[in-house]
């Protein structure tokens, strides 16, 4: 089967993308394996390195890293020889990761999920964390307004460093104080986001309908999740902060 240069170039770009993914995976495996003990003692018996639980993932990670590097170099050199416009490292990212509108939406959702799962849920009241997640998602896709999307990005770029600074560097006295501070910060952040659509120039009736739907989705979904898991299924939330403590007070102190 004959393959023209355009098809071959697409195949080599696919190889390049695969190599980058495998490189990231290999580095993640090696980083995780490095946390395992190489030697240890159990019951007075010293275990040597070749029976360490880190040995197998280290070998797999190293082999995967070498193979990914070989694939990366091979694909890169092939692209240089195929591309008459002079393919080089400066054009690597646009060629490998062409950002289409759908691709931007995908990256947005992935980034928001990472922010929600790894930063918000461990450090913020579950209800507030889910409300912020839902508010961001709803504003982005319900209104689908470029100027609103830019304001949303500006809000995150302005306030997110403050959130990170408070979460990781500010010295709190107790866990309760930390939760109160993080919950207050995320609550204020959410209120700022919810106020952004009010400035948009939509027809009044359309803006009212969209804003009502946004508020309903933003508040109802976290409420149903929290109440359903916490009080009906009796599953504790990952972080029970200000809002869930108030719910507990209402549920067990006032209505019991």
Helices and strands in order, then pairings?
Layout: H1 5-33, E1 40-42, E2 45-47, H2 55-82, H3 92-96, H4 101-123, H5 126-143, H6 146-169, H7 175-195, H8 204-232, H9 242-254
Antiparallel strand pairs: 1-2
Helix pairs in contact: 1-2, 4-5, 5-7, 5-8, 6-7
Summarize this structure briefly.
The protein is mostly helical and 256 residues long. The protein has nine helices and two strands.
Can you walk me through this structure?
- There is one protein chain.
- This protein is mainly alpha-helical and 256 residues long.
- The chain folds into two domains: 5-96; 101-247, no CATH class.
- It has nine helices and two strands; from the N terminus they run H-E-E-H-H-H-H-H-H-H-H.
- Strand 1 and strand 2 (45-47) form a beta hairpin.
Shape: flat
Q: Biggest β-sheet, characterized?
A: 2 strands, antiparallel
Tally the helices: 9
The proportion of strand residues reads: under 5%
The value of Rg in angstroms is 25 Å
Overall mean pLDDT: 77
Instruction: Identify low-pLDDT runs.
Output: none
Q: How far apart lie the N and C ends?
A: 76 Å
**How many domains comprise the coordinates?**
2
Key descriptive features of the protein:
flat; 256 residues; 2 domains; mainly alpha
